[in-house]
Design brief:
Elements (H helix, E strand, L loop, with lengths): L5 E2 L6 E2 L10 H5 L11 E4 L2 E4 L4 H5 L4 H10 L23 E5 L7 H11 L2 E5 L5 H4 L1 H21 L1
Parallel strand pairs: 5-6
Antiparallel strand pairs: 1-2, 3-4
Length: 159
Amino acid sequence: MGRICGISPRSRSPQNALATDADETSPSQQENFPVTDVFNYVEVADGRVWMRPEGVVCFAGDLSEQEQKVVWATHCAPAADLFSRNAPATAWKSKPTWYIVANNYRTVQPDLQRFLAKRMGATTHAVDSSHVPMLSHPDSVIDVVRAAAKAVQRSSATA
């Protein structure tokens, strides 16, 4: 996860993303930063990106071994072309944004996260977490969600 970029108009749920711009893809953003460990543990097969079991430590290394096994067993293998698609829109350009930088993220470089948060003008919070701060640091994540909701409520009330 690492970040809360906005609220999806369809799902009304927090969206986590690399916050690509219209001319960017996930790989084009990541090519300017060192490759993270997780890429040693993924395979593309059957049109999906599969993480091998030993890769879960890169994804959820701050959880117990038992919790990591649950995360691996229940994670969704994304479509292989997901990361090479352009975003249809860039909500972060026109909406308030909050970003949780996961300092121990071994999937997306923390320096890339900080770059994206700054570019977005996001209200940024850092936590010593892996990809899953909502599991390892739920109180920190809910504090950010609540702060974002309050800020949006205040701005709606004054508009």
